Amino acid sequence: MATIVDITEEKALEVKKFEFTYASADEPSIKKLDMPIAKNSITALIGPSGCGKTTLLRSFNRMHDLYPGNKYNGEILFKNRNILTSKEDLINLRIQIGMIFQKPTAFPMSIFDNVAYGMKLQGIKNKTELADRVEKALTDAAIWKEVKDRLKHDANGLSGGQQQRLCIARAIAVEPEVLLFDEPTSALDPISTAGIEELVVELKERVSIIIVTHNMQQAARVSDYTGFMYLGELIELGRTEELFVTPKEKLTEEYITGKFG
Amino acid sequence: MTHTQKRIITNNIVMILSTLSAVIGIGFLFWILGVLVMNGVDALSMTIFMEEGAPPGYEESGLKHALIGQLIIVSVATLFGVPLGILAGTYLSEYGQKSKLAETIRDISDIMMSAPSIVIGAFVYAIVVVPMGHFSGWAGSIALTIIMLPIILRTTDDMLQLVPSTLREAAFALGAPKYKVITQVVYRGAKAGILTGILLGVARVAGETAPLLFTSFNDNFLNTDMMEPMASLTVTMYNYATSPYEDWQRLGWAAAFILSMFILSLNIIGRLLIMKRKGK
Questions:
Q1: Which of A45, B106, B117, B174 could form a disulfide with A53 if both were Cys (CB 3.0 to 4.6 A apart)?
Q2: What residues of chain B lie within 8 A of the CB of A102, using their CB?
Q3: May I ask the CATH architecture of the domain B64-279?
Q4: What's the predicted TM-score (pTM) here?
């Protein structure tokens, strides 16, 4: 059984007996997983490649539904409802639970249109409102100063770090309640990485954050809670400082001290 | 002889042979273009664009009827072929993906792409011309649509598949419905590629003669009624070039020149678009 710390805060999400099986696999990639996610804090998911952390992350916004045949079991509770049911309105869910990907995913359009995209999808047409919210999102994502004079330029002309911040601006512009980060800095240089990490910490005032990372230092630097996953199971979820200093599980200790992974 | 010497000699032989082959190929291309330009430019005059066909010996004979006929037949074919091809390509890449139906369509369209165009002409002759009882512009456009369709379908399919799936996922993750992901994000990412496919498809059918011989046939005078036989540059060129009259032969050269320049420029624009995309 996993060691799961008591979460004192309100919960943003709660995973209960969750199982996930890929269309091409016989065995579930995530097995009977229970995990609370604290509100307005940062939860990092760590673990060796193939442990299921990204699979779990992509279940929170039902990204797996884009590919046929994938199967969910159990429950993920969000606002007192199980989001894994077939009745779930995925469009609405994805507006409330945003996602930042490993590689920057700037759309082939202008910087302004990139940030406005999510809002336009929600039917916001008022030009001043759009402009105001684009500016606010870009300011919050700490990129406004760099791009304010070239909002009409192609977003693909930005550097990798700038594009990633643009993607964060795009995601926060629709005011989600949860943001999922899938190794958001693995394609970036150290300076851009530091910038993104700083940004992530600032964002937790407004959103609950789950971040998948291969980088244990990153987890230690930014997160409040850390979950260690291994072979599709959650081994330990603890307060970050406790998990890294005094892990309760032997496997966790071996992983964070570099004995395997 | 050492191993290194052997390698250098082999390398030189292969280099000389391949350079020679390339020079021969390009040499023929420029020879063709050269003859075409010499004879074509010589035959060009304003009358060609102002006058219709006339019996041999008449001063006032031109290609206006063939130019306009060609334009109508190719435009109508493009009008049908482009949306059909793009929609079908979209189905393959975005909906059918690796399904049996999608793979079958891909195979069939690959076969159609290499099918001799005269066979498609004969097919349209059987299903359109025979029931109608006569040749028509419509039949010509239908034949060209069928030839154009697999080209546009496959380039659209290929170009859409080149758009990284993370881009689609990012749009879905913002709460976009599938049709908006495709039309607003995926199409944008593949815009230059799809446009290139369209240009190459149009260029390909614009040079077709065989399917038109069976379908739109020919008309020596200007006709804009799609229900009637219609002149085209290619068929006119074929008729004039094989005629024994010198003034008709000159018109044939002019037709060949105009057509080649049209197709050449479509191809060049297509390549430029590809280069622009790669340069990004």
A1: A45
A2: 166
A3: Orthogonal Bundle (1.10)
A4: 0.85
